[in-house]
Amino acid sequence: MSGNHIPFHKMSDLYDNEIGLRDERELIMRHLSECETCALEYRRLEETLRLCGRLAATMHAPGGLPAATMKKIISGNNKKRFMRSVPAIAASILIVSGAALFNAGIIGVHDRGDAAGVLSRSSVSDSERVIDIIRKHKASIVLVTDEYVEGMVPVSSFNELRRGLGLRRVAYMPASEGESDRDIHWGNAIEEVGVGDGQAQMELAPQAAPSGAPVKYIRFRVLR
Amino acid sequence: MSNSDSEDIEVIEKVLAGDVEAFSAIIGKYQEKTFNYVYSQVKDYDEALDITQEIFIMTIEALRSFRRESKFSTWFYSIMVNYCKNYRKKNRRYTLVPINGSRGDEEYNLQLTDERENPEKEVVMNDSLRIVREEINKLPDDYRDILILRDIEGLSYNEVAEILNISLSNVKVRIHRGREFLKNRLLARGLI
Fold first, then answer.
1. Domain limits for position B59
2. How far apart are the CA of B70 and the nearest CA of chain A, in angstroms?
3. Structurally, how many domains does chain B consist of?
4. Among B24, B106, B112, beta carbon nearest to A144
């Protein structure tokens, strides 16, 4: 192999530990230690896959997903579909629903006030509050990460949203409909803590979106 | 049978015997991977949440048809992948109607909690990762799906082959090409 370079699929196999023959593996390893071109190529592959691996750690499903999904399963239209598919479960749904009503005080004498208990909010994190506020202000959520909640809101609703967010740190910039993420450079964003009446809109009014299209939306990040 | 698989089977038996609530253990176990995969397909947080829920609902409805010829996880991921494939097909031809509201279901407020196992561990979703996601999204479907299952979700070659119902050699060829494609794109964008 000394005269040639290692084909990419062999590097990929090496990364996955899929080179079965020990001799072949040793030959490849030796070549990597001698050939700078192949070594660089292999490092690029490793970096590519390292970045892919990090993607998995950045998006999180909301903590309430199992409870909310279970509630959908045992209520409404899904109950009919589900009961049809698993008849034995029908009776238990009645039991579960009954227990929920009992806990809510609808059946029985207790009044615990935690409606069905399925989605009770014992501890509400700030991310949850931020998402609630964003949803109440006609904004859509684009991304939730450990660092920020990102969303998009019509310009007309932005000031109200900013007031709703209180003293949280927010980065924002003008955006147009259908704008690609590639057009957005967060380095150019305005970053503030809190806002006065009309202040944000006045600053944004003369600007165009990064794509050059008319500004109809504000893309924002509520930072942790 | 691995521990993880026998735990799944235990839960499934409970559900089929009438303990519906037991299914929440399955949701809890698979929600992260499912949500991540769905998000990579639809690129919208709220929509990804709706679809993730719908996938779990479809799964519980189909539980009786799970013949235990494969691991539960493999069977479940097949549902997930096929759901997203159908969704993409429909979405190319029709305007999307959100799942929420279309069936008259009530709105459910999902609680967001800090999911990090170690809050001190810094996990940064920076612009580099945004570019990686963008470039993965641009890959041809055949390469992208496999790359997500293998290199983001961390499934084995065998699992990917079973889920997508293609040969192991086909999986390997596609993963090699997908990786090469992505590596070249990241190189062109100055990320690596």
1. 1-122
2. 21
3. 2
4. B112
